[in-house]
Write a structure and sequence with these properties.
The protein is an alpha+beta fold. It is built from six helices and nine strands. About 40% of the residues lie in helices and about 25% in strands. Helix 4 runs antiparallel to helix 5 and helix 5 packs across helix 6.
């Protein structure tokens, strides 16, 4: 890769090793080896505006060495002593979360940071490993967390669990990702759900204290909440459709404008004529049009 994370802890390692020297470890170097070093799949929120403002520059579109600058990795640990006794097989068995919820004395706990990067002030990318050891088991969680401001949040988790008396460990991997826009809608839906539950609870508590039931008022409020949630879901779909349509329109305008500019250049070359310079008022109109398109694009993204 052309660059490494700003904070790389190359000597940090969390290792689980048997006395016969086989096991599993987690380290930063092996995690970085899983990063895509051939293509860039994520753009920052202001990328489109930056490219538009430098559209006339011949170097604006050049990328010397594309790679995943978010350092996203699906690293799941490095096996030790694979040629000895440890091997990986698929299983339907899953980590028992209920057992992990049980209160048990924690004999050992440690957190190890492998690397972190602030993505040039556009978010954060980091990966760390935590382990806790109890008398009956141990549990390890490695988490890669990515936040690109205004764009997306991504979480890749690797969990390792061992229960006393068994001759194997369970390892699970999960990946989750969503856009910031979608998460905002999910939060607003969760807020409406919370308000509805809280009103029901307040109604029950108030009724038990006073001994009376103001059913008409509470029923009306709850019906209004249901209506609000339905309108919110409809609005969410409409906003998504409008955004897609506006993006398509803007893309069509850009394509046709580009075609028109190419046609003008071709006419100039074939006719050996030059277009007269714009007057001061015409230059002002052109600048206003360019800034308007940029602001519309920014609003669509937000």
């Amino acid at each position: 890769m052309p660059s490494l994370p700003e904070m790389l802890y190359g000597d940090n390692v969390l290792r689980i090793q048997h006395t016969d020297h086989y096991g599993i470890e987690f380290n930063a170097i092996d995690a970085l080896k899983k990063v895509n070093n051939m293509e860039d799949t994520v753009k920052v929120a202001c990328a489109q505006e930056w490219q538009e403002s430098r559209a006339e520059s011949e170097h604006a579109q050049e990328v010397l060495r594309p790679f995943d600058w978010t350092f996203t990795t699906d690293y799941r640990g490095t096996l030790l002593g694979e040629e000895l006794q440890i091997k990986v097989t698929n299983t339907e068995e899953r980590i028992d979360i209920e057992k992990l919820k049980a209160r048990e004395h924690i004999m050992f706990f440690e957190e190890v940071l492998l690397f972190e990067d602030e993505l040039h002030d556009h978010g954060v990318s980091m990966i760390s490993v935590k382990i806790r050891v109890m008398p009956s088991s141990f549990f390890l969680l490695q988490r890669f967390f990515l936040r690109v401001d205004g764009v997306l949040i991504r979480i890749n988790d690797t969990r390792v669990y061992y229960e006393d008396g068994k001759d194997y460990m369970l390892r699970e991997f999960s990946t989750r990702e969503n856009t910031i826009t979608e998460l905002k809608f999910l939060k607003s839906e969760a807020d409406l759900e919370y308000i509805e539950r809280r009103l029901k609870l307040d109604f029950i508590n108030g009724a038990s204290e006073s001994g009376s039931f103001a059913k008409e008022n509470v029923t009306g409020i709850l019906e209004n909440l249901k209506s609000m949630k339905a309108k919110h879901s409809l609005l969410r779909c409409q906003v998504s459709q409008i955004t897609d349509a506006q993006k398509g329109s803007m893309e069509l305008i850009r394509n046709r404008l580009g075609t028109a500019m190419e046609l003008i250049k071709h006419c100039q070359q074939t006719s050996h004529l030059e277009v007269e310079s714009l007057a001061e008022s015409e230059q002002g109109s052109a600048m206003f049009l360019d800034s308007t398109i940029s602001s519309i694009t920014a609003e669509l993204k937000s």
